[in-house]
Each structure stands twice: as C-alpha cells, then as structure tokens.
Amino acid sequence: xxxxxxxxxxxxxxxxxxxxxxxxxxxxxxxxxxxxxxxxxxxxxxxxxxxxxxxxxxxxxxxxxxxxxxxxxxxxxxxxxxxxxxxxxxxxxxxxxxxxxxxxxxxxxxxxxxxxxxxxxxxxxxxxxxxxxxxxxxxxxxxxxxxxxxxxxxxxxxxxxxxxxxxxxxxxxxxxxxxxxxxxxxxxxxxxxxxxxxxxxxxxxxxxxxxxxxxxxxxxxxxxxxxxxxxxxxxxxxxxxxxxxxxxxxxxxxxxxxxxxxxxxxxxxxxxxxxxxxxxxxxxxxxxxxxxxxxxxxxxxxxxxxxxxxxxxxxxxxxxxxxxxxxxxxxxxxxxxxxxxxxxxxxxxxxxxxxxxxxxxxxxxxxxxxxxxxxxxxxxxxxxxxxxxxxxxxxxxxxxxxxxxxxxxxxxxxxxxxxxxxxxxxxxxxxxxxxxxxxxxxxxxxxxxxxxxxxxxxxxxxxxxxxxxxxxxxxxxxxxxxxxxxxxxxxxxxxxxxxxxxxxxxxxxxxxxxxxxxxxxxxxxxxxxxxxxxxxxxxxxxxxxxxxxxxxxxxxxxxxxxxxxxxxxxxxxxxxxxxxxxxxxxxxxxxxxxxxxxxxxxxxxxxxxxxxxxxxxxxxxxxxxxxxxxxxxxxxxxxxxxxxxxxxxxxxxxxxxxxxxxxxxxxxxxxxxxxxxxxxxxxxxxxxxxxxxxxxxxxxxxxxxxxxxxxxxxxxxxxxxxxx
Length: 724
What we know:
Radius of gyration: 29 Å
Strand order of the largest sheet: 4-5-7-6
Helix content: 40-55%
Largest sheet: 4 strands, mixed
Number of helices: 23
Structural class: alpha+beta
Strand content: 5-15%
Mean pLDDT: 94
C-alpha cells in the first residue's frame, strides 16, 4: 500500500515564518532608535565609518576610486586600509548615499537595520538547510540578530564587523546550494565577493573555516564533484582575499602593526566562566576592555534559550552528521573567543562571538525541530541542571549583578515549564495528528514574544553601546562647514577631543574620519595602520591625537634640509587644542594666529602652500613639476650637491621611480628621491601602485577566470544531461 504524500506547502506557508522573523528583527532594531536615536551612530561608526563612506561617495561622484591621498598622511593609503571597501559595490552604494544624506545618524541607521534584516533572512535559510523545521528556523532568525556583541558592539560601532556577520549565514546557504546541491554558483560568488571586499578580516577568516570544512568533509567521503566545486569556491574567495588584504600585509612592516605582540592581556577575550553568561541577557560577565575588568554590556550573550538546549538532546546520528559543518564552526569560534587577546595584528577575539552565536543557535533550532514536543523527564532534569549551573557560575563571576542573573534564570525556568506543559498536551491521548504541529507553533510564537520582551528590557538596562560616543553633529551640512575659509592642508595637534560633549565645540573641529567632510584637507584622520616613523616623530595615535611636542616638531627646523617640518609636509594651517596648550603658542616667522576659539587656536601660514604630494625640498634645479595623488613627474635641469628631492608624502611600500632612485626617507617618513645619477633634461616619474601590484592584478584576473570556468563547466555539464 503506497503511503500518502503530504501536499506541497503553499507560498504563504513558505513565506509566513521568515516574513515574521524579518519583520520582528526590523521592529526590535528600530526600537533601539526610539530609545536612543544615536544607537547605531557611535564610536568607530561616528568617527570612522561615516566619514570614509562620505569621502568614498565624493570620489565616486567625480568618477574615480580613491587609491592614495597624500594629504591624509597615515590614513591615506586606501587599499592598505582595507575597510574602505574600495572594490565593494555595496560599499560604493553606501558611500554614494552617505554623500547625499542630510543626516549621518539616519543614514547609518537605515543601512544597519537593512543588514540586520539580511541577517535574519540568512539565518532562516541556513537553519532550514541544516534540517530545522520552519517555525524553529524562524526563531533562530529572530535570536541571532539580537545576540549581545552583534547589537552592542558591531551594530552600534564596528560597521564592517556587522556587515560580515550579517552576510555570513546567507553566504553559507548559497555555498551549500552551489556545492551540495549543484545549483548556480552566482549567488555564492556575489555573496562571498561582498563579504571579502568589505575588508574586515574576521569575516574572511570565518569564510576560510567554512570552505576548508567543506573541502575536507567531501574529500573524506570521496565526493569528488563536491570537492571540485569547493575548490572553485575557495579559489574565487582566496584570489579576492589576496586583492583585498595583501596591500595591508605588504604595508605593515613600516607601520606599528609590524610590532604587535602575541600575548594575553585578557583584553576583549573571554574565559570559560564568562561563557556561562551566554544565556543571561541582563548581565555583563567579566570582559576586560578600555573601562577596566568589566564592560557594561551583554557582550557574551547569545540567547536566553541556551541553557534549555538539553531539553532537545540527544541529536539523532543523521542530524549530528548533517550538523558537522556547524559543529566545526562552533568549536573553532569557541577556541578563538577563548584565545589570547592579541595574536599579532589579529586582536580582540571576542569579535568572533557573532559567529559562535550563529553556530549555537543553529544547533538549538535543529535539535528542537527533531525532538520537540517529545520531552523526557531526563531532558527536563538536564535542563534544570544547566540552568542552575549557568545561574550559579554567572553569580560567582559577577556577584553585583545578582538581580539580573536571578531574573534571567527565572525566565528560563518559566520557559522550561511552558515547554513541558506544551509537550504533555501534545502527547496526551486524543490530542490528534496535528497536536505536535500546534504545540511547536505555540512554543515558537511564545519564544519570539519572550525574545522580544528580553530584548526590550535589555535595551532599558543598556540603552547604548559601551563604546564611547563623541556626540558629533549628525547634520552633514554642519559637519561640512568645519574650517571654512582655510587654504591649503591642515593638521590638528594636542588633545582635540576635549569638549566633545559640548555642541558648540563642534564649530571649531571635527574628529577622525569626519575631517573628510571639511573642505580643507586635514592630516589628522583615522587609520588602522599608523606609520611608525611619522607617528613617533609627531607622537600621534591612530585617531589623529598628538602629544604637546607635536607642535614644536612641526615648527622646528629639520637639520638635514634646513626647512621647517611643517613646510616639508606642506602644512598651511595648524589647529592647536587649548586643553593641551594652556598658553598661546608663539608662532614662528611665516606663521600667524588667524583666530582664537574657545577650544582651539588656529594658526595659518602667511603664504599657504600647495596640498601635500609635491616637491617640498631639493638643492637641484627642477622644472615641469606635475603632481597627482599617485604620481609626481619633473624634469631635472641641474643636479645639486646632495641630489635629494623630498616629497610631502609618506614612503609607503608601492612607490617606484623611473629616471632616478628612491633614497632613505628624510626624517624616516618623507618620501625622498635621489637624482644624483640623472642628466640635465632627464624626466623623473615617481609612481605609487598598491603593493605588490603584479600579484594583485594576477589575482584580480584569476578570480574572474575562475568564475568563467565554473560557469562554463556547469553549462557544459547541464547540456550533457548531468548535474555538475
């Protein structure tokens, strides 16, 4: 007797659960803005991301992509900076909209909520792919976007971290469709290109883990067709990774990144006791950061349901095997989160918490799909034991949060009781064939309500990110008016962050990458790669702050050239923070105090200099000097005694010279050319290309060849009547 075939689900049945998840995710994300309009506009987003997006949009509207900006000095090597997303079409769109946006906070809020919606949809799809039923996949799609670090660090501050973690589930789903099911690789190729070109290395690391797991698993099972597909997917990702990250690696030796140690100072990493707070939404664990041994935010929170996982165990062998990729990712992320706080240039491993949360939540959803509503007494006792253990260890770890820990434990106990009641109702005699389905729907809907309540009360407890806000104006028109009327390039010296909470102070300065909105080019922008010699000479940090000595250095005479350092850098204006200089600095000859503000002194050169990038010293005779951001060309009329030609640009790796030779940089950071071997009339060209340019070009071309080959082979295989 043939078994009856279940009818295919309708379109509404397929869409209602993911639609609910996405709408609820957007609603919860929007609620944060209702409580705190600047929730998504803080710290690195405020001082870093928006300014660089605005600048990228400005370049794009003029029909070009930024490669190098000599006036930005440390921050102006854009391929090395990586997170500018120079080759990311999505970042281009973000940049263009930033350039047109009247309000910076509204702009970043819209984009971040959009990415959280993508996160929700991707979580639904990948959880379904690993065997979860629709309702439980929908719950997973609500839980992942409200995990602690995702909300309070990535969404609030670390934009590219948010983009990568939000995109990863969707990317993983497209990869499995292409490799496991032989579907079109185009969605994977688009998604992986987007993730890699965002320029956030942690997302690329996770992509490598996913690809290696796929390759090893299929090789062990001798599924060679899947092996070749994974190799093609890996080659595409690897070649783009080379294009995006190799310039930073090649540039690192001249930056402070070259000396980053391997050590564990317990800064933004977790220990095992911290992870027992993964189910506690209102406690903080003991995560050390800039504010001491505890950070005021739920950074290790994954989901309030975590301690209830034993209720849905054990997993069937088939489900366990299917979940192998998730378990590998979860185990790897757990090891990373517990790893030393700094592994050279890779630091702060707690940034991997969103990926650990993804893995844990997928396992939870698949296990619940498999077991619920069949709950045994042993499952209940195991869950009770884990709830108690998590509550106790969280209390031991942070005894001052006992009320929050008790509240979280109470929610879990009530939820456990609810699951047990639903299970018994579904299993009682006469409950009917649809009882299990109804119990599941009720359990999931109630869990989403609890998740919403937990998220909203968490927001009442933590109204903002622990990351600091500098309270910058959000009006782009206001930001663009900074340093109006100043000619030439400017630099800021001293602690110009003083007064950041006073609105009027923003009439006198910007911060970080917000300086890109000013009409005047400013050297004091944000960088992830502080140039060592430059940073040491001007005692500056990656945010553009300097010590008091920086002003004296700028106005001092360089002993090798006899010129002022500010002239060698082609600086025409200096903003000196009064918080650092209590009495008015005495300007040297050729400079004057243009105006005095409440927070800063504004000094200008009597005769402004051209913007940085050109020749600022030579004892040779030169003519026909032409300067662009990436090239300097001149004719040598007569060679001087030293043959030195000093340029107002940093000697990043990637510079080459034709007609002369590169010399040791003056002061260790001013690009210097030796024309001693040139003859009168010779033309010298100094050119910058992101290093190592031939490898970058080969990788760029190779990536598109991989795409073409994969699509061609797939089309040929389909024509032959077999799946590729």
